[in-house]
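Reopening this ticket.

The earlier resolution said the output was attached, but the attachment link was broken on my side. Pasting everything inline this time so it's all in one place.
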Amino acid sequence: MHGHHHHLHEGVRGLAAADGEKRLVALYSVLAALLLTGGKITVGLWTGSLGIVAEALHSGLDLAAAVVTLWAVRVSGRPADAEHAYGHGKIENLSALFETVLLLGTGVWIIREAVERLFFRAAIHVDANLWAFLVVILSIIIDYSRSRALLRVAKKYDSQALEADALHFSTDIWSSLVVLLGLLGVLAAHELGIAWLAKTDAVAALGVAVVVVWVSLQLGRKAVCRPAGFRVP
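Inline output:
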């Protein structure tokens, strides 16, 4: 009897540890997204790089996703979730919808701004300085490590929420690379005196913003079409 009780206790402790690990990796995600969003907004506005501002928006998308994941992991972490399964879906949908509208609006604004910069306005001076490159490179490093960490824990505990997040961050690496190319173009324009290259930043911004708008439309569709209460995996 005593042995059995001990075994049960171990099992419960194991669950708590798994929960803690999932929560920790989700929290790390939120903090990383916060850092990146703030850093990109600051550097983007300071250097006039629309690409980095678009990247900030992308990190904002992650921040929203990371917060929802952290929350989902905390809620679903409790084993006895049968009677809870319905309430959460509603809140999740509403917050997803709100975030979607916010992101859509910002994405559309960036697309408009990028198109204006490309075709209708004299080239705005983009200062492709060290900070611009640093924030994008740092972003790639953080996203890579974060995606690896999430994937490891997701596989270990077979967590769909964490796996989705890991995928999210690996797609971010691509958009960061696009923005990095845009900055390199701006740098080359200054160094080589090729005027049209200065517009690569706006092209990069356009690309990233289109992806963000597309993703937010998908999210919005899911939030609207999915009846609250039924958790679609």
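Reporter confirms the inline version is readable. Residues 2-225 form a domain with the Alpha-lytic protease prodomain-like fold (CATH 1.20.1510). The first helix runs from residue 2 to 47.
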